[in-house]
């Protein structure tokens, strides 16, 4: 039987007879002997077949890449000059006594140490792709992260409780995956978008501290970092204040980073209000690795003659902000044009700038297409506010606040990373004091910024009706290097407040009753104050591994067309299956009954 | 903030000021003071409101059952004669300083210590049902079991890898739950019946040891102990022999029972072959708590004059067996009639018996309706084979072997439990050497007894075609107290053997290619020898907790009509949702296209 993993052999085992199982990573004839690099999940070891051992040698001659072998041999030191210190086993080799071929292999479509394989081929041959050391490392890290989270939560009194997968439409607002019921013809289960309502019910049940690492589903058009099914670290607690929940959760994330990747995150995490984050970074998930900040100019641009600035400043939802790029004067015209095209993605109609060549020369020392539209006073104000220095470049955004924030917020991150302003390492923070609602302009109604079960901030209960735009919530997001990795809130635990929020959201009593009657009822039977959070496990892992795609931290992911190239799911089904469910396929939408 | 859990207060905290959060379990006025039993997940503590503390007292007067309170008070010893040793906190009480009502409650539909509530009410108000201490204990035990399993597997090098929920039809043969795809109109995902193929692919990928505690789905008509979604401890390993896998897995179950319920299971578990289990117990999942065994009579009944016995003995698929009930002579005529009706469920046409009153009296000492059909020799043989004693009762089964086994096997367990033959405690065992195939008489073909990926026993590869009925497999079941709690096998890792098995099962190349092409392909790229097992977590918990139903160890179960009485899932969906999926509802099966 196996005595050791290939990748775990070193000089400690010198002269020992060992038995290994593994895959032929590479085989080469060299100077009359055959070298086989044998690979298992722990790594590689070099084995060597001497022609003196005729059986093993003849066997080795027939061996090809990715054959599965059982090798018994003796560990010996590699000769001087052949030591490979990039391998754990690089100081030793195994002199083969016996080889047994446990299975052969066709020539694989790619080599296991090739990192330039098209993703379509990787996904089609996923079982081979997962042999590659990078993918092995990603999935093993995933296991370590899950386990570290479980150990932390278990030690802190959290109980892992499984909630249903076959359930009812949940209120996250994304599209549900539906599952037709055979027993109850014409009725459908929905796969959960999150266990939100169940975890709240578990608090009503008095479990006090719940967690679950669980699969969630959203039938959305996929973006690069999304999957139809994704994994959430789902957490809920009773009787804790917002601050207590946040402190416990950042402790968990700190302990995770320490134990899994030996990184010490700051304690406590910095906190920004939503308003501060938008003002300084144009984003509610700022990448704090980049020190550049947006600088407010709206207040001082109301009187300027430059129409673009003045009109934006005068609008109630307008904003003018500057982004100073220290020593950005070196940016070429081409680069500035590219950035102008980049901000256009976010709806910005242009990208005004001032190059600060020599402050001492006054207006003469500046270079800008908009200079001619600005008074000397206005220019002075800008230079003072932005604290401009010789060699700097100042970009401007002037439009609806939403456009300015998104455009300059994204530009800040892009320039920060492209031009070396980004610090390395991990920069977590909390964003707090989110508004309860945001305006859905298309549907002309208020929408919940988090979800409809989020508690208003203390004292804001009465603003739900009168000033819904100003009401703040007890929601909090954990942000890491510009990505939201967790979002949570204190929940509403009183039925009267919950009804008010539904009202503000224009959810009728009938609709609330139909969708959430069990929650509304549960709130009347001694619901405790409670709150929680959900972390996106896939995203955390994508960041931790530095993977290019979320698909690299998922064993069997779907493509952006929501297909599995390995199993060819989704597939067709036969008539009997559909008959049993009493459903028919329409040729297209127009033929649907 | 909370200083302690209610149920965790004892004399260690005497004279300390503590703060508790919890639910009003019961409130009573007594001698001018108000007693409130406050309950949280750890248990109860008695709190006491003195009228001297006017604010707290007035608040306490308005309090009703299941209100949520924050109570601060001082721990003191209970007066002599009021100590309640059934409670952990029963030697102390908390003299209330302040009460805060965090939430009120309507009068709940049942009391939290009522154990006689209809299941429909319990499931409708599941959030209240889960407050009951028994349900709290069940779900906390479930958490402990999951965590103990994870810790054991982590320590033994197993990697937790998540496999897809949105996948393709799996080959377990039960009905799939289907999920229509919106992006790929007319195509369907299937929810997994198990991760069988994915875990085999992970072995091909070289992960070596995989596990997952995962949800599986079967759209079957529900029996008492089944749920549409259930949880499996799913395990796979590479390069281990059947014996090594079994030893590792029983070690896990032993460690689980020791750590979670302080029970020491035997080491090693006893093993029975399938043939032995059927011969001795009439079942491949024998309840070893009952020492009674079936006694073979087929060989000695071929010549008897009694037609019922002779015909059964002469049939190639017939069997005659006896079940001796020591001192069973005390069974009444009524009881024997009831058992006769019981075995009829399994198809037995009667239940012959001999009462052994006094052996010394010869035939005179026996009492039986069939005595007159049997020769003295035949009776002697029976008495010798069964080792009958004065006072015993001997039951007989004579029919097709399947009927005899099922009828006497079930009778053995029923009488064993009803008449005190059962030992207490836990009796695990392995059943091994299962046949590869069983005959599907209706469809007139061979079916896989485990699943089509199970390896034949060494040397039985060539019997797949020639003697499919005799070919044994490397499958193994773990049985505990008469329930199968886990089933597994060494898998086929060579394509040629896999093709032979498909052939024996009459699965055409086209069908195999369509359903399992990715597996067949993977087997050609260096698939290692591998095998694994899957345990039914819900069933293990049902047994560990002594619950009456699997529904008592699942937080939010479905009824036998596959409905959730709490959320009213499955529910109706709107036309837009169906249009997006391009599916239509048929009125009934006949209208399906």
Overview of this structure, please?
2 copies of one chain form a homodimer. Helices cover 29% and strands 24% of the residues of chain A. The longest helix of chain A has 23 residues. Chain A is α+β, with helices and mostly antiparallel strands. In chain A, strand 7 and strand 8 form a beta hairpin. In chain A, helix 4 crosses helix 6. Chain A is built from 16 helices and 23 strands. In chain A, the strands form 5 sheets. An 8-stranded mixed sheet of chain A has the order 6-9-10-22-21-20-17-11, with helices on both faces. In chain A, strands 1-2-3-5-4 form a 5-stranded mixed barrel. The N and C termini of chain A lie far apart (63 Å). At the A-B interface, strand 1, helix 3, helix 4, strand 6 and strand 7 of A face strand 1, helix 3, helix 4, strand 6 and strand 7 of B. Strand 23 of chain A pairs antiparallel with strand 23 of chain B, so a sheet runs across the interface.
SSE arrangement:
The structure is a homodimer of 593-residue chains.
Chain A lengths: L16 E14 L2 E8 L2 E7 L4 H9 L5 E10 L14 E12 L15 H6 L1 H4 L3 H23 L3 E2 L17 E3 L7 E3 L5 H9 L4 E9 L11 E10 L3 H20 L9 E3 H8 L12 E3 L10 H8 L3 E8 L7 H12 L7 E5 L9 E2 L8 H11 L6 E8 H18 L9 E5 L4 E4 L4 E4 L14 H4 L8 E6 L2 E8 L4 H10 L4 H14 L7 E7 H9 L29 H7 L1 E3 L8
Parallel strand pairs in A: 3-5, 6-9, 11-17
Antiparallel strand pairs in A: 1-2, 1-4, 2-3, 4-5, 7-8, 9-10, 10-22, 12-13, 13-16, 14-15, 14-16, 17-20, 18-19, 20-21, 21-22
